[in-house]
Amino acid sequence: MLEASSYKPMIKAVRGTRDLLPPDTALWNFVEATVRDVFRVYNFHEIRTPIFEETQLFARSVGEETDIVSKEMFTWEDRARAESEKGQSLTLRPENTAGVVRAYIEHKLWDRGLNKLYYIGPQFRRERPQKGRYRQFYQIGAEIIGPASAGSESPARDAEILELLATLLDRLGIENWTLELNSVGCPNDRAAYNEALRKALEPVVGQMCADCQRRAVTNPLRVFDCKVPADQPIIETLPRISQFLDEPCRQHFEQVQEILKSVGVKFQLNDRLVRGLDYYSRTAFEFTHGALGAQNAILGGGRYDGLSESLGGPSAPGIGFAIGEDRLVLALKQSADAVQRKPDVYIAPLGASMDREAARLARELRHHDVVAELGDETFRLKKSFEIASKLDARFILIVGENEVKADAFALKNLESGEQVSVPRGELAQKIQSGN
Ligand code: HAM
Predict the structure, then answer these.
(1) Rounded distance, CA 420 to CA 219, Å?
(2) Which burial class, exposed, middle or buried, applies to 127 when counting CB atoms under 10 A from its CB (0-12, 13-18, 19+)?
(3) Of 57, 67, 123, 279, which is best to mutate to test ligand 1, by the most ligand atoms within 8 angstroms of its C-beta?
(4) Cα 400 to Cα 354: distance, rounded to the nearest angstrom
(5) Which of 125, 127, 218, 236 is most buried by its number of CB atoms within 10 A?
(6) What spacing in Å lies between the alpha carbon of 263 and ligand 1's midpoint?
């Protein structure tokens, strides 16, 4: 037989995916519990949509010309199994806004007025894996969507979302974030802007990358997504959407900024920020974080006032965001140890037939919310002590024949070394008091 350490895995996790193991999962749970708490006080409610959807949903909403749809989706043909069934193209969701808006239309959620929804779950994009960028990653997101009569279009909603995000990052102890803000205008503005962009691109596009040459014709706004260094000086000279906003869009954006100033949320205007998805209109934003390196966008979002209509639904202005949870966890200062509860007590059965007595005690203590780890009667006392201190348990509880007879048990504080005999009925309280 091979030494355990010389085994090589025959099958590994797929490239760009990874296992989240304890103690790191404690950090993820800390993040999710904090986030749920914050959503609760802002009156958001959870929605869970399927992990795969019809490919058409993403093509129509995120947009054919985006990197996500044109290069990064995990898509497959699902063949018909019976004559009554149709084959269809399905896709693992690359993001969750499209699914939420589909659900809004499918379940006529406009009957409920303004919907304030949040989600936590995996998303999938076939990007080149690196630190902070995975092919299965997790998003924590929220959407406010409803008929305009319910207030969904109001700049107050944009500001509420942004203030919520500032609160959330503060609550998680994440400092040094920057909120970058822009307005990408509405369809009115876009026609004139696209025209101006096409004109400005005409004489220079020949020097740009193949993607940009295509985008210049099909969807010139997407030129701003280009990461090719040689193209950046050209992109810097292009006209910006901020010069093309019509009066209602300009005022809307102005009001968002005024509310943000009044609640004390700092932001930077960035008129190059157009976000990599086609559904945005008016407010668009990203929060970046210095410690994350190249993948520094910790979250992004914006308005998508025309999205419902483009999916065949009624007018339903909306705004939302998605946080990259993987990146959020990377930006946390806390260590997993600090947010994890260690065992309060290690229960060490000592000698024959003591397993059943120890199991009884463990059950009683756990009912009192004591975190108890249960040993094994075949272990020598020395081994039990070793395990208890490896687990960083605060106490060890010895369950031997004499203890059972007396119905009082030897409880040793592993930090102070003090050992006392404690009657069964007082154990939980003694352990919880911590000394
Ligand atoms: P997004 O900017 O595509 O927006 O993604 C949001 C966040 O997800 C990013 O800022 C990043 O933190 C994280 N993320 C994206 N791709 C990866 C990846 N491959 N690995 C790790 N993290 C990643 C959206 O998805 C929109 N649905 C946000 C939204 C909601 N807009 C309105 N409502």
Answers:
(1) 76
(2) middle
(3) 123
(4) 7
(5) 125
(6) 26
- Nearby residues of 198 by Cβ (< 8 Å), 6 or more positions away: 216, 220
**Which regions of the chain are under pLDDT 50?**
none
Q: What tens digit of pLDDT does each residue of 287-341 get?
A: 999 878 777 899 999 999 999 999 999 999 999 999 999 999 999 988 888 888 8
Q: Mean pLDDT in the chain? A: 95
User: Is the shortest distance between the CB of 289 and ligand 1 below 6 Å?
Assistant: no
**Position 195: which residue type?**
E
pTM (two decimals): 0.94
Could you give the C-alpha distances from 153 to 119, 147, 150, 276, 281, in angstroms and in order? 21, 8, 8, 22, 11
Tell me if 22 sits within 8 A of 30, measured CB to CB: no
- Backbone angles phi and psi of 375, in degrees to 5: -85, -155
252 Cα: distance to centroid of ligand 1 (angstroms): 24
Which residue's alpha carbon is nearest to atom 12 within ligand 1?
Answer: 324
C-alpha to C-alpha distance for 177 and 132, rounded to whole angstroms: 16
Query: How does pLDDT run across 47-59, given as a tens digit for each residue?
Result: 999 999 999 999 9
Residue in the block written with tokens 């093309």: 244
**Number of residues that make up the chain:** 435
What pLDDT digit, counting tens, does each position of 141-162 carry?
999 999 999 999 999 999 999 9
Q: What is the CA radius of gyration of the chain?
A: 28
The residues, ordered by sequence, that sit 6+ positions from 210 with a Cβ below 8 Å of its Cβ are none
